[in-house]
TrEMBL record:
Domain annotation Interferon-related developmental regulator N-terminal: ranges: 34-330
Keywords: Developmental protein, Differentiation
Biological process annotations from GO: cell differentiation
Subunit-level organization: Interacts with PSIP1/LEDGF.
Pfam families the record matches: IFRD (PF05004), IFRD_C (PF04836)
Gene Ontology CC: one annotated term: nucleus
Cross-referenced Gene3D superfamilies: Leucine-rich Repeat Variant
Sequence similarity: Belongs to the IFRD family.
InterPro entries per record: ARM-like, ARM-type_fold, IFRD, Interferon-rel_develop_reg_C, Interferon-rel_develop_reg_N
Official protein name in the record: Interferon-related developmental regulator 1
Positions of the UniProt region annotated as Disordered: 1-53
Kinase found in the keyword field: no
Encoding gene, per UniProt annotation: Ifrd1
Lineage of producing organism: Eukaryota, Metazoa, Chordata, Craniata, Vertebrata
Biased composition (Basic residues): 1-10
């Protein structure tokens, strides 16, 4: 009689088994503010007076142990396991400042990213490209980052230019190429080469001379948008003589993209135009654009668009953006925005700064405020100076009581109610229905 087969628990697989269960980087992990390089930093709102004491060293060791496990899993045979590990590393890198941890393992992580981009497909390539962006954000500018870009740059360019690769992978690699080049390169030749690669992509969105009916969106439109935005980011760090060349080359062609069927392409083209006009006027106070009347007419139409075939949400978003673009082109004006992070404030007062802020916010997500507080590179980009380190006594004095917070919120609610009631007349809202 044959012996019964042994039945074991195969959750952790070996070669050829089922994919491993990867425990992702959780919100609980992200809430630990004890990582190296910023252990004395904290958000005043998160400070608790009578909270339990935390063993920072043990917590840090636990978190680093998890991250080492994720790095190992990026070499797994299962594509799903590799992708889950990449996503977990992305979550950790976006929510924490891990400079010392990353510095020791930068080449290992770089090799994993390169392998996943080269051999992976679709979602895995997107995750790897996103991790490459965050790796460079963690490292900042320096020799080590340049080594990373020398390894990944050619791979990213190859995927971006590969017509057989998935559109999502090409889109992610285009964004990654622009951000990594912005962060690490001091080589002007490499900067121009990267911009040329991106130009070769988004200029395909320009209509042909024989096509006078505007631009129709295609499955490549998302790629064209990413390439255009990445190119625009790199333009902000170009020498002025190169900026002039690029303005002469593209300023007369970009308005054609304002007629694209895709809302995001119209917005990307409009914001790029606003930035180009800002840079042009910085280089030449008497800058003159020949087709200004036609351009402002187009922008005004988009700022007051009432097309019934478009979704109301899309129309609101478009009108909001193009009102600002029109003011920038016509009146040289920019609506200043204030960004709060911890006890600090940052004012976004020009299109160059807005483009840079929006780009990093897109890749860092909810971790943007944390990195603005603690990341040396990001603070240098926005000229914020060294990180502000606050001790426990300072945090206690800054923390307001629950009762005071309740009074403040009540007053703010009443003020909003009064302000909105004045705008509820039917005549004030009539524009929303067209």
């Amino acid at each position: 009689m044959p012996k019964p087969k042994k039945r074991g628990n195969n959750h952790q697989r070996g070669a050829g088994g089922q994919p491993r269960n990867v425990q992702p980087f959780s919100d609980e992990d992200a809430s630990i503010e004890t990582m190296s390089h910023c252990s004395g930093f904290s958000d005043p709102a998160s400070f608790t007076e009578d909270g339990p004491e935390i063993d920072e060293e043990a917590t840090q060791e636990d978190l680093e142990y998890k991250l080492k496990g994720f790095i190992d899993l990026t070499l797994d045979k299962s594509a799903k396991t590799r992708q889950a590990a990449l996503e977990s590393l992305k979550s950790a890198f976006s929510s924490k400042n891990l400079y010392e941890f990353v510095m020791e393992r930068r080449m290992t992580i770089t090799d994993s990213i390169e392998r996943c981009i080269k051999k992976g497909k679709g979602d895995e390539q997107c995750a790897a490209a996103g991790l490459a962006c965050l790796l460079c954000v963690q490292m900042g500018s320096g020799i080590e980052s340049e080594e990373i870009f020398k390894t990944l740059g050619p791979v990213l360019k190859k995927i971006v230019s590969d017509g057989t690769a998935s559109i999502q992978a090409r889109q992610a690699c285009a964004t990654c190429l622009g951000i990594c080049c912005f962060i690490v390169t001091d080589d002007i030749t490499e900067l121009y080469s990267t911009m040329e690669c991106l130009e070769n992509i988004f200029t395909k969105a320009y209509p042909r001379d024989r096509d006078t009916n505007g631009v129709s969106s295609t499955h490549n439109t998302v790629l064209h948008i990413s390439a255009l935005l990445a190119w625009t980011l790199l333009l902000t760090i170009c020498p002025m003589n190169e900026v002039k060349k690029k303005i002469e080359m593209h300023l007369h062609k970009l308005p054609s993209l304002l007629s694209c069927d895709d809302l995001n392409m119209r917005i990307a083209a409009g914001e790029t135009l606003a930035l180009l006009f800002e840079l042009a006027r910085e280089t030449d106070a008497d800058f003159f654009y020949e087709d200004m009347e036609l351009l402002t007419e187009k922008l005004r139409a988009l700022a007051t668009d009432g097309n019934k075939h478009r979704a109301k949400v899309d129309k609101r978003k478009q009108r909001s953006v193009f009102r600002d673009v029109l003011r920038a082109v016509e009146e040289r004006d920019f609506p200043t925005e204030m960004v709060k992070f911890g006890p600090e404030r940052m004012y976004i007062d020009c299109w160059v700064k807005k483009q840079t802020y929006d780009t990093f916010k897109e890749i860092l997500g909810s971790g943007m405020q944390y990195h603005l507080q603690s990341n040396d590179f990001l603070r240098s980009v926005f000229e914020l100076g060294p990180p502000v380190m606050l001790d426990a006594a300072a945090l206690k004095t800054m923390k307001i009581s629950r009762f005071e917070r309740h009074l403040y919120n009540s007053a703010a609610f009443k003020a909003r109610t009064k302000a909105r009631s004045k705008c509820r007349d039917k005549r004030a809202d009539i524009g929303e229905f067209f």
